[in-house]
Automatic annotation (TrEMBL):
The gene is Lsmem1. The keyword Membrane applies. This is LSME1 protein. It comes from Cepphus grylle. InterPro entries: DUF4577. The lineage of its organism: Eukaryota, Metazoa, Chordata, Craniata, Vertebrata. The keyword Ribonucleoprotein does not apply. It comes from the Eukaryota.
């Protein structure tokens, strides 16, 4: 199969632009010429011969990702702690309500015992009189 030659006219581009276009054409040529297995080997060779710009960019990206993950973790932790504190306060309020009810019921029971004793005394006295 014949491949058409790629001619690009770049009259007003700067040197960096030309290098970028040439690099892109080289990458395109590698994709067309090399099979999948050998392309991976070529990519590894290019990565080892890199100037460090990609690793610096990936380090910054990793640091930003770590920072964002850390902030999200802190926010979720704060939300969970707030929810637990809310539950503790609600539980304390319910316990206070139950305690006050128990105390009032205890008072009612003591009053009923006193009334029962009074009734029993009255009945005992009325039996004795008869």
């Amino acid at each position: 199969m014949e491949r058409p030659s790629l001619e690009i006219n770049l009259p007003d581009t700067h040197e960096e632009g030309k290098l970028y276009v040439v690099d892109s054409l080289n990458n395109l040529n590698k994709l067309n010429v090399c099979p999948d297995g050998s392309q991976h080997a070529l990519d590894e060779e290019e990565n080892t011969g890199d100037t460090g710009e990609n690793t610096a960019g990936s380090n910054i990206r990793n640091q930003c990702l770590f920072f964002v993950t850390f902030i999200l973790t802190l926010i979720v932790s704060l939300a969970l702690v707030s929810f637990v504190i809310f539950l503790i306060i609600q539980t304390r309020n319910k316990m206070d309500q139950i305690t006050s009810r128990l105390l009032s019921e205890k008072k009612n029971i003591e009053e009923l015992k006193k009334m029962n004793n009074m009734i029993l005394k009255h009945l005992n006295q009325s039996r004795i009189k008869r």
